[in-house]
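SAMPLE LOG
Freezer: B-3
Tube label: C17
Construct: single chain, 130 aa
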Amino acid sequence: MIIYGVALLSACLVAGMLIGEGLGIVLGVEANVGGVGIAMLFLVLVCNSDRFSALTVGAAGDGVKFWSAMYIPIVVAMAARQNVAAAMDGGALALSAGVAAVAVSFALVPVLSRIGADKDAGADGRETTP
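STRUCTURE (predicted):
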């Protein structure tokens, strides 16, 4: 019943794109403003809603979960590709800003992992016993 996942994904995408186009018109920008992101938020909200719980159980639920899991990485990959292409056209400053953002993100991984670590874990990451 993957078809239910495709139908739900399509409905969320159409709604998100319409809202994104509307935002572009309101803001005076000749582009879709966040339509794919809005669609992704709709998909997450619908999949976690009690109102659509019938769609998220059984074989139909497997289809919805499959497309929910596939949608986010695809959107991230599309956005990353567009950002790299824009950075190459934007010149050295845009490219260096992108490289710096990635370097800072990699540098913050250990810091964030320490913040999220369990308070009962020791320095080596193993559970401590009282």
